[in-house]
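stuck on this:

***
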Amino acid sequence: LAFIITNEDKVSIVVGLTYDLIATNDVRELIKNTFDLHGQSGGGGRITFAQAVGHKKDQLNKAFLSIKNQI
């Protein structure tokens, strides 16, 4: 489950994984890798649910595809 939300000049990414996916994925790393890819830092939460905030609205599609491709 991934949500990317924009509010004015901020971009929020929220990602959650089911327990069957955490054996091979850590959602905190998914978000961190996505934000690092786009020159920003962020990401925090639990292994199953994390969120981050950035400022590059023009990178929304790339961010979503980055998370999708990592799973």
